[in-house]
User: Fold these one by one.
Assistant:
Number 1:
Amino acid sequence: MSEPILSVEKVSKSYGDLAAVDGVSFTIPEGESYGLLGPNGAGKTTTISMICGLLKMDSGEVNVAGQSMSAHPVEAKSAIGYVPQEVALYQDLTGRENLRFWGKLYRLRGKELNSRVDEVLNIVGLTDRAKDKVSQYSGGMQRRLNIAAGLLHRPRLLVLDEPTVGVDPQSRNAILESVESLKAAGTAILYTTHYMEEAERLCDRVGIIDLGRLIAEGTRRELVTTIGEKDRIQLTALSGETTIFADLVRSIPGVAQATVNDEGVELLCTEGRKLLPKILEAADKAGVAVASVEVLEPDLEAVFLHLTGKALRD
């Protein structure tokens, strides 16, 4: 197995008696989007600041693309593209001028600089506005250009700290599509957000942090399983003996409950989509004509609320 792009090992940071981050550990391999979720004050920003070398950790270790942040900070930082919550752009410069400025700080020059500016403008969908001053951009467009600036040096790890806060729906979708394409191209992504639907869409794995500790980690399905949440299946019947069908389906391993209602039968089960063939076979045996099947899977919001006692935006 190849070495992860980001490795965070038992990182801690305290302010007096307050443990802002307490022994946080996780890894992100190439091409994975990892969501770091937590309520306000949970320790997300402090963790990100230590990962990016902006804040000195009390203990622990961060490695980026094989480089230790403690021993080789310049090399480690050069592999990171950091996009902060606040827009870091010059309002009186055009989009292209901003990118050329940041590109030169990354030691890009000549044809390479011009080519890379064109590439990142295309990635974030701002090629046609490159000659306009940033002061004329909408808030969403400024955030897209902010991401472009973080991509200029082809980082192995892209850190996005709530990149869609306060943006219009069109720009938000453009940002999410850009992140998806970067992930597909092999970039490792660390993503924080207050929008659970973004985490559902973008993140291969999620780490939930609360009171400075990483209290859960895994895919959406793995996290749902840990709290015992089950899929809900509503099977609508046109005709047939739904009571017989409910009795038959209860014997299927993975089905926890089958309840007859006015529409047909409602099931509670584990990994409902995998059980559908057996469920439909049972309906056929019972002579039930099925009109529709709806599978409702528990989401990350339910997991987050169960583990932290708070909604994500609290």
Number 2:
Amino acid sequence: MRARDLPNLITLVRFLLVPPVVVLLLNQRYGLALGVFMIAGFSDALDGYLAKRFQWTSRLGGLLDPLADKALLISCYLSLAVLGMIPLWLVVLVIVRDLVIISGAAAYHLWVEVLQPQPRLLSKLNTAAQLLLVLAVMFSAGLIRLDPFWIQALVALVLITTVASGADYVWTWGRRARHHRRQAARG
């Protein structure tokens, strides 16, 4: 193993942390689940730092890192919905948004041009809101009970940012596809 492979190895460890988080949540061991979730979050920050700091980026890492993040978040959302701690409709909305973005990116890549993924600001805000909701729910269930208002406020924030970021991706990449097609028709 070379040093430049370290970020990808850390990302693989994050994938391996998904099942323990799910098992801990489903067994209502919220404090431990929160701890493992935070270790996974730290691993995400660490592999990103190493990849950028030492230019240890790779195409594989560019694919694995967001997949590991999505696997962790979606697994937590599904587990918390099964436990009745977050609304199932919110989980469905989050998954549908991701599927729309993934299918749109695949279509753009296949029919328009090679896609260069560019995370949008609204998408980053949505991810932050999703993470905050998971952290708040686990924190409230496992450590110190939060006022339900704060959980509901985070549910509303995830709802708003999920819809807004999904619409932003569809609008932005739809415009780019139309522009590219017009340019191709002229040339």
Number 3:
Amino acid sequence: MRHRFIPQMSLGAIPIPDITFNLSSRHELVPILIAIQYLYVHCKDTLDKILGMIAADISTCENPNRGCVGLSHWENLVMASLRQGCDFDFDNLADSASYHKKVRQIMGLSDWDDKTYRRSTIQDNISKLQPETLQAISELVVSLGHQLCQDPLKRVRGDSFVLKKNVHYPTDSNLICDGIRKLVEISKKIADEFDLSGWRQHDYLKCKAKRTLRKLTSIARRRQPDRDIQMRAAYVDLLEQADRIIQRAVETINAVDAQVKAEIRTISHYWESYLTELHYFIGGTEYACQLARRRVFEDESIPNTDKAFSLFEPDTELINRGKTPYPIEFGHRVLIIQDSAGFIIHSQEMGIGFTDEKIIVDVMKNLQARYNGRIQAASFDKGFWKPTNLKELTKHIPLVVLPKKGRLGEADKERESGEEFKKIRKWHPGVESAIHALGAGSGMKVCRDKGPTGYRRYVAMATLGRNLHTLGKILIEKERKRQKQDSLLEFVIG
């Protein structure tokens, strides 16, 4: 059973419109909570839309009056905003929701209320929010912010950065050891459930693979004259271990199938998922072994398209940007478009193999259509350059500030020497500040969520948190000016 808000305010709870904040505080929590309060007090229609979208994702029961009492839709909104807006992990978020005075007040709880929040409860609820829902909520927040600013869409700027996956540096030996570890752990769990033998030495098998990995690492660091011979011998040992464990895992699957057929029973969904995972890691480990054989024993140079960079995040992409301090990164490119008010009006994960110049035309065409042609100027760096891009973008945007790569012709020199071009070009580097804020303040350095959907949710949640932060700063500045004018008026009257 879900509710839009906490059904009954507890004794001593402060009404949300009456909550006060320290406007001189520099903590990122304050502007986000002020923006959420603004939604509740002044934007009832927008808030109804937002809570309706959250309800569509969270509510799994057809009858809203049935089921356990979970988090209200308002609590989900507050926690989803704070998670990336303040760069909280789920433990920090649970602690803040349980013990931080202002966070509890904004959710409708009083100092006397003993309700606490478990990390797993928050994680289960937030993980149900779809990336598309979070993007739609962020767009609504941006539209509210635009009502408080003057011509925020007159000019926009865009750039991309890499949001890394939470994976270790991929080497052949690391991937093989990851596969061995998971095969042993899953097979042992299945063997215990179905009373199968063959995995009594499961701890020893994992330790043996780990010792071989350490040996390989040590040989690679020593750089002795016979290093290649030692490396091949160590790889032979590791590959033999992997082959034996893969064979045992296959025998375990066959034994489970035989037992199920003999007893004429069905496997529960829980154990079916473990068998599916075991199938996956068998295939992944075999592929990692195949790559190692090609590289070590056949001296083959493996192209990036054939490489596997993680068994846990198989969609990970190797991105060689050549920039210090991390010239090579493992993750995906993320494109952001920022307006002159500081709102991120668009963010998206680029697909594998896509770069800046391949998607910018479609993105800006859709943005111009969404905002009814209000974008008058758009600024990008040389990474977005392509002759056709300039031509296509000019059809939709009056002024396109897109520097050309390489040597400039006379027409390009004239175009880039214009006063308006140079003015907006000087304004463009501010987008790096937005990227830094996303990384340092919204956790956009490394994605902590798993899977493709989790990655897109992470990007959308960070964008929502940053836009709420920007809206809160605008509201704080307006309130400071109002207080200053009131104090000045009192001084004049007095």
